[in-house]
Amino acid sequence: MTQDTRTSAYRRLSDHLDKNSDGYGPLRGTLGTARMGMIWLAANLVVTTLLTGTLFVPGISWGLAVGMIVLGTLIGGSVLVLVGNMGTRTGLATMSLTKGSFGLRGSFLPVAANVIILMGWSWVQAMLAGVTVNFLVEQATGFSSPVLFSVLCQLLVVCLAIFGHTGIARVEPWLALVILAFMAYIFTTAFLAYSPSDFASIPPDAAAGWTPVATLDVVIATAISWTVLSAEFNRLARTQSAGMIGSGVGYVLSTVLAMTLGATAIGYVVLDGGEAVPFDPTVIVAAFGAPLAVVIFLSVMATNTMVVYGMVASVVNMAPSRRITFLPTAIVLGAVSILGSTWLALLDRFTAFLTVIGALFIPVFAVMLVDYYLVKSRHYGRDILRARGGEYWYRGGVNVAAVLVWLIGAGTSLLLTYRVPSPIGATIPTFVLSALLYWAWAAATKRIDRTRRPHTHLLDLPDGSPERADR
């Protein structure tokens, strides 16, 4: 194959991806409620969510763990749905929407944090898939190389993600159906062996260090970790109702199922006389066999594809420059994600990782929701697509008030987590404090828009492209 042929093939693929709106700017969605629901269902039927459920039992009782999973998912899911709806209404990805509240340049801060967090997610999930595949291969052949299998799993994920949102939308629903079938098998196996009352009778182990409030915080933090991608995928929805209902039902159902499966699987291990080792896929795979390993592998393929795509979308949508295009960005970030999947020690720090996500992004989403729905009266104009100047320039491109609220909120979250434990956890007080502080600033500076401008998708608003406006 000649160099010209290779270059031509690369350029054709790059042009195809950019043409299908994986590049900068708003996107008009085409997907209905059912398709959105299936995408979100597959998204969180993932090994990390499943293994998060293994953290709680036997630290607290199985029944209480399930109750906290449901409550935390509903609370965190409401934030996810509202941020996702901003994407449906405007056509913008999540991190592009931060320009409205943080400023055209101030948004670079949450974007950078988002890329780092998503990169960590991609590493963790690739490692868990690799460890699981390695466990099965080692049992069958004696060969063991978890690093190799982690790299191979992430390589496959990057190949899937390179084809952008179109490929994801096609693959996710089918993977969801397969994963659900295997999950049904595992639930059936567990409850045929032991009744729900048997699981509920497992004595809590205080030495595990878990409380109902700590469990609730982790479940909400899981929803917050997914909210960084909510507008990316909800902007694919044809209507607001399709996006909100699809993401709400899909996310809540998938999270409750996955975490409850994890809590049930580790409870099964305890009832069977085994040791409850949390966040270790090999423990529950040994108990349930290959079907659970299939669930873990397919869930990583489905979810990590979305994670890598989300990283790329965040960078591509960071600034209105056609020099930052989808394909080269995907290749660079994909290569980093593959290399990072060799760092298996990160698996021992997963709970701390979730805490950092909550501390960083709970105040970000509190500011975003207050700014869009209350301060800006549910309207962002085309100035949000500019490189400089306009309504969202604030002072030097940065809304200092939003950045300060973010810092105060993040500090509060860490303080309530590690120094001054709160009887209602850290996530809810952090969100409320951040929202109230930003609202108070907007009211004091008379920035609240009470004109109730009609909703218009950014693609339907008049004015030229951001490139023409800035030249």
Automatic annotation (TrEMBL):
One of its GO terms (molecular function) is cytosine transmembrane transporter activity. Belongs to the purine-cytosine permease (2.A.39) family. Keywords: Membrane, Transmembrane, Transmembrane helix. It is found in: Membrane. It holds the Pfam family Transp_cyt_pur. The keyword Transmembrane applies. It is a multi-pass membrane protein. Its main location: membrane. GO terms for cellular component: plasma membrane. The chain crosses the membrane at residues 38-56, 62-83, 104-123, 143-163, 175-195, 207-229, 249-271, 283-312, 324-346, 352-375, 396-418, 424-444. This is Purine-cytosine transporter.
